[in-house]
Amino acid sequence: MLESINRQVSTVHFADLELTDQRVKTVLGKIPRDQFVPEEYQPYAYENIPLPIGYGQTISQPYIVGLMTELLALKPTDRVLEIGTGSGYQTAVLAELAAHVYSIETIEPLAKSAQEILTRLGYENISFRTADGYFGWEEASPFDAILIAAAVEEVPPPLEEQLVNGGRLVLPIGTPGGTQTLWRITKQNNNFIRENKGLVRFVPFTRRK
Ligand code: SAH
Prior knowledge:
The protein is α/β, with parallel strands linked by helices.
């Protein structure tokens, strides 16, 4: 694994990534990504690459975290739903830019670890839940923005329902294990406007039995 990582390294300060939203770049430049990865991968925490976090999951590539965040077009008053907490790194980015983040993870030890790290770093505007994110978080809905960090084959209908009018949903749709298309879906008077934002590769969205 480390050998393949050594072939991928591409050092760039995260505040200098090719993104358009300066607020997102500033946040990426200040969050300590090394805190979110297992010790053995800490030397690679500031490379622009995904890294293993255990349980077959990965912390996303910083550029993709930034791109998805910028597509959500967050306002400081926004309430955001994140599906796939994973390491908690994307959660921190969202918590810096929105009023409150509701984050769902299906793998309990990852959910616990992310909660510990984010609490230690002082975030107080995040709620956590260990569950299948397919159903969203109805009691806390509606949300101004929803992000799914795992590859789905189609949009879970409960998530479209839990968006406000004008709300944005950013997610990878496509074959699990292959590449997917990153979409931004904007809800407008019960129409869903889809914008194709290019190819990405995410771990599969897994349903709970
Ligand atoms: N943004 C995270 C991405 C982690 S990978 C990070 O950078 O760390 C995607 C995560 O989605 C994994 O932790 C996986 O367990 C979780 N996941 C997959 N299917 C899910 C589901 N149905 N509900 C909630 N979380 C899910």
